[in-house]
Amino acid sequence: MKYARIAGTGSYLPKRVMENAELEQMVDTSDQWIRERTGIERRHIADDSETTCDLAEAAARNAIEMADVSVNDIDLVIVATTTADCVFPSVACLLQSRLGITNASPAFDVQAVCAGFVYALGVADSFIKAGNAKTVLVVGAETFSRILNWQDRNTCVLFGDGAGAVVLKASDGPGIHSTHLHADGRYEELLHVPEGVSRGYADMQQQAYVQMRGSEVFRMAVSKLSEVADETLKANNFDESDLDWLVPHQANLRIIKATARKLSMTMEKVVVTVQDHGNTSAASIPLALDVAVRDGRIKTGETMLLEGFGGGFTWGSALVTF
Ligand SMILES: CC(C)(COP(=O)(O)OP(=O)(O)OC[C@H]1O[C@@H](n2cnc3c(N)ncnc32)[C@H](O)[C@@H]1OP(=O)(O)O)[C@@H](O)C(=O)NCCC(=O)NCCS
Fold first, then answer.
1. Which residue ranges in the chain fall short of pLDDT 70?
2. Per the count of CB atoms within 10 A, which of 68, 193, 242, 274 is most buried?
3. Ligand 1 pocket, 211 CB below 6 A?
4. How does pLDDT run across 216-247, given as a tens digit for each residue?
């Protein structure tokens, strides 16, 4: 059996940085409240002409360069996103064309909001394990700023735009040891964009936007992330002390700290980018991973737990040796 090994990582952030101070001018909030409750200090925001596929392309090119593969070796493209450029084609198809991949291999999007990247990684891992792909491009990319109500202080301070990518190659050893994916659709109303193509828009003047019951989401996130971490370690006969790194979804520093505590990991072993990126949904894990690979923290042979939680609810994890 083949395993999926990460051969390259990449990321991209839009140029425009929005500091907490700018949000103080827009809604009734303060830099202090945002830092204390979330750990976020700034986030990047795509400009009007920049789409999710633009961010995905820049991140993908960085990952492909590090992996040193030719684009036509890529035999599967998966993009995790909630904020696709258009209804169809998928961002993955747009990206395949932009990158010049002409080998007619499959390309599709995965929609699991903030758990999207671990979902996409799980799908890619299954393709490689089954022998159906050898070189897979997996991207998490979002322009979440487009689905925010900039008058709602409960949500607009939390999110940002960005993209992260990995190239996976079939290998004789791990790589990805296992992925664990979950969903519970009963919680739709705690975190959702309730309008859309098929339900329609209540008011065509108004864009559909994120609505969230924050403290309930917070409690579920902490409990499910801790459960899936236990499940992952157990499935692989790993002990907490076998983990070199935790690379969590970057939603809230307090959620990250609670998860690290449950795993008895010190914060030195946790990759944290939420202060600079905010919550970039499906992009947050590959963005954090790329930052820690490129600054030399995560080294070849080290083992990390990736985990994410998002609307749906959806959540999941991956145990990966880099
Ligand atoms: C949103 C979140 C930061 C709020 O923190 P909290 O400690 O739970 O705070 P609460 O929701 O209890 O709200 C406390 C008060 O702050 C207020 N508040 C909310 N946003 C605010 C803001 N940006 N600035 C100032 N005050 C704010 C609330 O209105 C509330 O006021 P009230 O007590 O007068 O009603 C936190 O719940 C959270 O991070 N939840 C998870 C969000 C998440 O991760 N979502 C994505 C999952 S992928």
1. 203-207
2. 274
3. no
4. 999 999 999 999 999 999 999 999 999 999 99
For residue 218 and ligand 1, the question of a CB distance below 6 A is answered with yes
Coil, strand or helix at 264: coil
**DSSP sequence for 47-100:** -TT--HHHHHHHHHHHHHHHHT--GGG--EEEEE-SS-SSSSS-HHHHHHHHHT
pLDDT at res. 203: 66
* CA atoms of 87 and 100, how far apart (whole Å): 22
Q: What are the φ/ψ torsions at residue 304 (nearest 5 degrees)?
A: -135, 150
Report how far apart the first and last C-alpha atoms of the chain are (Å, whole number): 18
Q: What is the 3-state secondary structure (H, E, C) of 170-183?
A: EECCCCEEEEEEEE
Residue 20 annotated as catalytic? no
CA 214 / ligand 1 centre spacing (Å): 5
SS3 75: coil
| 156 part of the active site | no
Residue 213 CA to ligand 1 centre (angstroms): 8
Pick from 119, 152, 215 the residue to mutate for probing ligand 1's pocket: most ligand atoms within 8 Å of its CB. Answer: 215
- Residue 48 has what DSSP assignment? T
Is-contact 161 14, C-beta < 8 A? yes
249 is catalytic: yes
Is the CB of 153 within 6 Å of ligand 1?
Answer: yes
Tokens in use for 204?
Answer: 């065509």
- Asked if omega into 162 is within 30° of 0 (cis), the reply is no
Q: Which of 35, 37, 309 to mutate to test the pocket of ligand 1 (most atoms within 8 A of CB)?
A: 37
Q: For residue 200, what pLDDT is reported?
A: 87
167 contacts 7 by C-beta, under 8 angstroms: yes
Domains for the chain: give ranges and CATH numbers. 3-173 (3.40.47.10), 177-321 (3.40.47.10)
Among protein residues, the one whose CA lies closest to atom 14 of ligand 1: 215
